[in-house]
Amino acid sequence: MIYDRFQQEAIDYINQGLSVIVSAPTGSGKTVIAEHIISTSLEKKIGVIYTAPIKALSNQKFRDFQSSFQDNIGILTGDVSINPFAPVLIMTTEIFRNKVLDEPQSLKPYSWIIFDEIHYLDNPERGTVWEESLIFLPAHMNLLGLSATIPNIKQLSSWIESIHKKPIKTVIEEKRPVPLHFFFQCGNEVVDKIEQLRRLRRGKPNRLTSLINYLRQREGLPAIYFVFGRKRAEILASELHQFNFLTNKEKQEVIALYDSLLERFDLKNEDSALELRPLIERGIAYHHAGMLPTLKEVIERLFTSRLIKVIFTTETFALGINMPSRSVIFDDLRKFYGRYVRILKTRDFFQMAGRAGRRGMDKEGFVYSRINPQRIAPEEVRRVIYSNPEEVKSQLNASYATILNLYAKHKEGLFKIYPLSFHCFQSRKNEQKEALRLIDAKLKLLKENGCIYNGQLSKKGQFAKNVYGYELILAELYEQGVLEELDEFGLGIISSAAVFEPRKNQRPPLLSKKSRQIKMACEEIYEGIKHKERRYKIYPFSKAPYFNLSSSMEAWLGGSDFHKVLRCSDTDEGEVIRYFRMSVQILREINDAKVSSQFLKDKIKETIRVINRGIVDAEKQLREA
């Protein structure tokens, strides 16, 4: 095989037994380097772990690698465990972090760790997981980090070198194999220079049909249309209902493929699949997190078959999932970041724009941005597209579970671990001081609430160290004997409330008597936790429990079909499945706690068995894929 310059450079370092971080544009072929590690490691009979930031990407990598490496591939994602002792194990980064802290001996057979999308280190919600994984990386493991373009890659590698005392090579590729050409729709005209936007500021409103016709005339299809809202993706797709992008032969092919996939995934009678059908017949689709996971997979397969010509999708479609197209369209250059709407980061823009231009098929990719001059100025458009990508910044915020795991091993010596962090490496003195204060405040709270007693983890603390993200509230429920008293329905209600995050303007449904009692107990506990966190100035507060899915969970545990379950909540069907799967994961973590009684474990196993059936069973979906 002939490699690109950056691929060969990385592979040469790897063949010398060196760790490497690769920074290269989206779609440039970074996965080839990971595949080299996997194939050579299998020849040498040494293990490899491959981590991905989202379960959808983990699942895709499992399918891709399994087709190349067969039974040598396994997967662990919390709700899926297939071939868990395989020489090549794919997992979410959270699972790897948990193994590093809880059971490092299980990593001895693995000589390589591959971090896909390592720039996720600066994700505000989950970046801590990457940082902790890198800090506590076992000495015997080599590292391959794969990243979108980041300007401070050398700073990142210098930090890892400084804590692990071994060289980390950096490989940088700035050129895309397929160059991008940028266009803008403004005033219902399409132009290719930002300067031209000024004369179009008072033009006609942009029309989707005009833009799609423009692409069609210039052979710009297939196209991925990125939109920052699920309902908007569906609305825009339906606006194209008068278009037909397929020949009669292609129409017959796509219908046959769609029907066979619906049959395979037991979706023939699903309303959402039937609603999509008229669009699919015309070469149009949409894809977002609110859809059934199996239906999303059907759409992904249709798109890779090249029978879908325009797909409207949210940004997760850009994250590592191998779905290139000739063109990419941005519905807007602004999106919701946590608490507010702001202009897109340059790195986020290119993560999505990088899907334009199919390597080996297109000479260039085309990127269209729809511009509303009332919402974004030409200078801001220029900043998004032509600025350097943002540096990766540490988002370290050690969880209570991490602190408990470290205290069990290091006692007060855990404070010596903060200087090893990327946060310390790149922060000012006052930021370092605040980070240490926060760790100290969390440790004091854990001592006050009885998780640590007389310099040891109590039973409560041993329980809490297992349940990352939901430690304090579940530990209180454990200590007070509430978990022991609950039946399978109550355990399902508790687990779904722990993980659920309501969307804006979502209202909780009417609750059963059982759910109301559990809600009252949880809210009283949570208020006590929040009061202590406020007193210790610990921010952000621990996640509150939300009982929006309680009725849905009760119906599902009672044996209702999924359609009835959906009527119990205003949550999208794909979200219901995601939260049910997350409930299974948290129940497994409770079950794995050594201090959980056999009585509780037996009830949890039964609760998991009933939740994890049919359309909720992620493992079944992967096995049938």
Walk me through the structure.
The strands form 4 sheets. The protein has an 8-stranded mixed beta sheet with strand order 4-3-5-2-6-7-1-8, with helices on both faces. Strands 10-9-17-14-11-13-12 form a 7-stranded mixed beta sheet, with helices on both faces. A two-stranded antiparallel sheet has the order 15-16. It has 26 helices and 19 strands. It folds into 3 domains: 5-172, Rossmann fold, CATH 3.40.50; 180-386, P-loop containing nucleotide triphosphate hydrolases (Rossmann fold); 449-624, Sec63 N-terminal domain-like fold, CATH 1.10.3380.30. The longest helix has 23 residues, at 513-535. With 625 residues, the protein is of the alpha/beta class.
What descriptive keywords fit this protein?
625 residues, alpha/beta, Rossmann fold, Sec63 N-terminal domain-like fold, seven-stranded mixed beta sheet, 19 strands, globular
Topology:
Layout: H1 5-15, E1 19-23, H2 31-44, E2 47-52, H3 55-69, E3 73-76, E4 81-82, E5 88-92, H4 93-102, E6 110-116, H5 127-135, E7 142-147, H6 153-164, E8 168-172, E9 180-186, E10 189-191, H7 208-217, E11 223-226, H8 230-239, H9 248-264, H10 271-280, E12 284-287, H11 293-304, E13 310-313, E14 327-330, E15 334-337, E16 340-343, H12 346-353, E17 365-370, H13 378-386, H14 400-410, H15 422-426, H16 429-448, E18 452-453, E19 456-457, H17 459-464, H18 471-479, H19 482-485, H20 488-499, H21 513-535, H22 550-557, H23 562-566, H24 573-592, H25 598-611, H26 618-624
Parallel strand pairs: 1-7, 1-8, 2-5, 2-6, 3-5, 6-7, 9-17, 11-13, 11-14, 12-13, 14-17
Antiparallel strand pairs: 3-4, 9-10, 15-16, 18-19
Helix pairs in contact: 1-2, 4-5, 9-11, 18-21, 20-22, 20-24, 20-25, 24-25
